[in-house]
Amino acid sequence: MKINQHISELKPSATLLINEKVRELRNNGQEITHFGFGQSPFPIHKSIVEELKNNAANNHYLPVNGLQELRQQVSNFLSEHQGIQRASDLIFIGPGSKELLYQSILIFEGEFLIPKGSWVSYIPQIKSKGGSYQILETTLENNFKLTPSVLESYLSNSQVQKHILVLNSPNNPTGAVYSDAEYQSLATICRKHKILVLSDEIYSQINFSNEYSPSISNYYSEGTIVFGGLSKVFSAGGYRLGFMSLPRELEKISVVYSSLFSETFSCVSSPVQFSAIKAYEYTKNLKEYVASSASILDGISTYIFNELSRCNIQCTTPQGSFYMMVGFEKFKEHLTSLKIDSSTKLSHHLLKNYGVALLPGSDFGFHSNELFFRMAFVDFDGEKVMEAYKKEIKIDELFIKENCLSIYKGVQQLIKFTREIG
Ligand SMILES: Cc1ncc(COP(=O)(O)O)c(C=O)c1O
Predict the structure, then answer these.
(1) Cβ-count burial 261-286 (b if 16+ within 10 Å, e if not)
(2) Could you identify the atom of ligand 1 that is nearest to the CA of residue 229?
(3) For the segment 251-292, what is each residue's pLDDT rounded down to a tens digit?
């Protein structure tokens, strides 16, 4: 048996590994705060579940590109609730945005550009096809967002003909959200160098300062493919439904996508597509539900940010999604003297000795010796917290202690750690 070398070299995803480790420790009776796994803690809105039930008997294969009614509904949703104008005939429905991103990575030849502080799966997906990529440097001062000067300087010195930039905002792992002005400047450079942008906007409505986050497609529509889906905004990761939208200028590629879809997944499950129509109708009630979940995440992340920053733990400013990066660079000297000189080693140390699970930054494009970690702040019962939030609205330490005890304890454990080594 001979396995494709690009595939055999892939490691199991760090997120899943840490999840298994946490489950094992919890089964042994250990108390663990799980800051590792990033799944929406909130229940799926009842209207979407009802629609899934109503369509459970539907056993038809649906069109490869997705149900026309759903594609139209996504187009309306993008226009009304995400500020993006995209025609329904250029919207494609797939089994999760992950698969659509992967198929896009398969389709486009060139060098992929990944800002440091990017989602864990982009690089393995590129590697699996033997593709080439370059990590672009970002800094904490800029919330690990790509700056126009870094992009311009890389592209103007590059010998490669074609580039594909992968952007994600609100961001996993940093929680950063690009502003309109930032996108405008990046778009100028993308246009100048004619690069393709894959814009992963799966967390768009989980934005703490606005109803949805800006999109680079509004400044560079002709070169941007936008991705989204049910998993984060609608808390329906297990439904496995995502979408992508091509600009009219890339229309001729749609047949390439359709061919690849038809030879791989055929179509997304029909009951799920019907339930997604309900989601993208985005009734007032559903919109308020999403807005409340974003406010809760905002409150929790602000609490964590304030507590940890006071103890010299570096944090990105949380602006959206369910994540932030936390850093222990200020303790580096001491940690190195204890032979803890990489984020992987420190993540094991924190899990073993403090019962706190964090994912090492090295899985997100950080150098192995940079002591940064992704913290997912969703280790709480979303249903219970949503009920409590409706009564109290204000999220302070008392609220966190009463409703998100694991997060409270995890934060206290990290503070204890800094005191012990400080
Ligand atoms: C940034 C980002 N993009 C894409 C995905 C994939 O989402 P799905 O395939 O569930 O649509 C995730 C899931 O964790 C993500 O965090």
Answers:
(1) beeebebbbbbbbbbbbbbbebeeeb
(2) 11
(3) 999 999 999 999 999 999 999 999 999 999 999 999 999 999
Q: Are residues 233 and 313 in the same domain?
A: no
What gap in Å lies between CA 50 and CA 46, rounded to an integer? Answer: 6
User: Is the CB of 374 inside a 6 Å radius of any atom of ligand 1?
Assistant: no
Say yes or no: 368 and 269 in one domain. Answer: no
State the pLDDT confidence band at 14, using cuts at 50, 70 and 90.
Answer: low
Question: Quick one: what percent of the chain has pLDDT higher than 70?
Answer: 99
**In the listed set 231, 257, 282, which residue is the last one of a domain according to the structure?**
282
The pLDDT of residue 394: 86
| pLDDT interval class at 392 (50, 70, 90) | confident
How do residues 341-366 score in pLDDT, each as one tens digit?
A: 999 999 999 999 999 999 999 999 99
Domain final residue pick, 257, 282, 307: 282
Do 231 and 331 reside in the same domain of the chain? no
Distance CA 202, CA 177 (A): 12
- Closest atom of ligand 1 relative to the 200 alpha carbon: 3
How far apart are the CA of 412 and the centre of ligand 1, in A? 29
Which ligand 1 atom sits nearest the alpha carbon of residue 119?
Answer: 1
Backbone φ and ψ for 121, nearest 5 degrees, come out as -90, -15
Q: Are residues 278 and 289 in the same domain?
A: no
Domain that holds residue 379: 5-43+285-421
Instruction: Confirm if 10 and 124 have CB atoms less than 8 A apart.
Output: yes
Could you tell me if the CB of 39 is within 6 A of ligand 1?
no
Task: Domain count for the chain, please give it.
Answer: 2
> Strands (DSSP E) along 274-394, which ranges?
314-315, 323-327, 356-357, 359-360, 372-376
pTM: 0.97
- pLDDT confidence tier of residue 381, bands split at 50, 70 and 90: very high
Please name which of 202, 183, 192 lies closest in space to residue 163, comparing C-alpha atoms: 192
